[in-house]
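>> received
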Amino acid sequence: MESQLEELRSRALSEISSASETKELESVQIRYLGRKGRLTALVRGLGGLPEKDRPRLGRLANAAKRSVEEALRSRRAELAARKGDSPVGEGRFDVTLPGTRPRIGRLHPLTRVLDEIIEIFSSLGFTLEEGPEIESEYYNFDALNIPADHPARDMQDTLYLKNGLLLRTHTSPVQVRVMEKQPPPVRMICAGKVYRADTADASHSPMFHQIEGLMVDRGVSFTDLKGVLNLFATRCFGPRVKTRFRASFFPFTEPSAEVDISCLVCGGRGCRVCGSSGWLEILGAGMVDPEVFKAVGYDHRVYSGYAFGMGIERIAMLRHGINDIRLFFDNDLRFLRQF
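>> returned
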């Protein structure tokens, strides 16, 4: 039996090495390893041998079978490489066909814009701070000089939780928390999600993103604020953009201003995008109100400061000509792959 196994193994290996076609290998496989193959028949005959010889001859038979199977695989690969056949699957592989481009992940457009804005202000010495999204009325309203009867406190605008807590309506509470812990000078920005009781439409979302900045030191003026925001506008929207400051009102800044940039579509000449005005609003800003300094223990007679805030979605929509804020949150790959 042992000599028969070795003879069949040697004969099979010889036929495999001399095979020049895949069909020949298939014939060898059937002849030796098929249901009625020579090696298969010999292995089946092990049951008629003396019990003491079965383990040793069984191991030899399995070794011979594995040797033939490995030789078949190796020879198939050699023939496939020689003829250009694919060793896996059916048919031939045409190396002249164009490859399939892999889909590579990319950053969300909001993340891209946010990272760019943070980089701009970080280069000016502003540090990035964070704060909780669940806030108290004190930090969200009281410390920011927003009176109890202010419309912003109404249930129609604010999402209230239990025990006097709420989902923050802006990122300005982070400014208060930083000033409570840190004496002047302060130069910081904070970014994150904010929440309003708005119905989702093309220009509103119940959740969106804001970034705010704060600078407090001796002798800080409105001129410093204008210089920083002018630099931000040119770095974010291009060197040709112009800025305009319009008087406005915010409870936590005095004086306050809305900041516009020249229309990115018409260059200030007037079009449907800017309502024929030539200007697009991008953010609100102003000098920190003395009442806010009182809330955090700063002496408003010694220190002054400015603050500004903007919506990330607003900036991204202007940058990329997007007309519906809901596109940022729909997770539509056709939209996201454009960035």
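>> The chain has two domains: 2-83, 109-336.
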